[in-house]
Design a protein that fits this description.
355 residues, alpha/beta, seven-stranded parallel β-sheet, two-stranded antiparallel ribbon, 44% helix
Length: 355
Amino acid sequence: MSRFKPECRPTLIGSMPVKDHAEAHRLVMDHTPEIPPWVQLPAFRQEGMVPQFLPGLPGLAHSGERTYVDTDSAVFESELLAFYEAYLACTEEPDSMDKSVFALTDETAAGFGTLFAGLETAADLYAVKGQVTGPITFATGVKDQHDQAIFYHGQLRDAAVKLLALKARWQARVLSKFGKPVIIFLDEPALAGFGSSEFISIAREEVVACLEEVAEAIHAEGGLAGVHVCANTDWSLLLESSLDIINFDAYAYFDRFILYPGQLKNFLNAGGILAWGLVPTLHAEDIEKETAASLLAKWEDQLEQVVSLGVAAEKIRAQTLITPSCGMGSQSRENALKVLEMTRDLSRMIRMNNS
């Protein structure tokens, strides 16, 4: 981790409001060519945050538009056994992941194949970014036949975490072909509810164990493990973890993030990277009123607040990524283009000021 210094380069969270993967990839390479991600297109139902990573989970059943895990199915036990056999085989022989349920396919993740093909001719590559739905968001979003989240079913939760861990590891392994640092983000919007009444029965230790298992799989391939939370959470949980990158909504929640000064300082001093989600994506009016210049002023104020904790400005800049606050999939095309432009331009302005 200490060898990767993004120096305020930009990257993206992943989703866009377009219907063509080639077009989405062109937009990525036009705006964030140094650290390009593969793109998820919510216009396709199978590319939703949870559906995209469902393939391979034992017990999957469908009823109309509902997809769930049926533990009463006559084949559930045999599917569960086959899943663990595949998991063990792939952990012992990682090359076998390519022909396993842990490899992403064009059916649900066409953006990955589009990125991979495009990187063959990429000229300015500094790093490359993949993503997987985080284990908390996934396991609280997938339900069983009784409409209960599989997070509360110990065996299913374990299978879900292992499924995501190897899908993340497969990405890190495949993308390492290009000889650049590989970043894999865990997208964890559900962590915004951690500590609330909605998740009152979920222990901190359970959350940490799930995150660490996926991070460990990414690290096994030499990848950098990041986490994206698009609202507020208990940031100490993430700052004290083995995650390398923390992506937070610096536009709307910096005042909450800075409430963890000790953990934040320790994270940075250990080489941790902050991905500042400075470019708004949630509200159209925020996108329309902001400019790269106005966001630069916000960044400079926030930077000074972190410097006041006793961390050198040069260190913070070296260990910073610039991103939108979240994905752009829910925005209009016009606003998404503005988000892309502001992300690119803000990064350029910050780096120019540092030169």
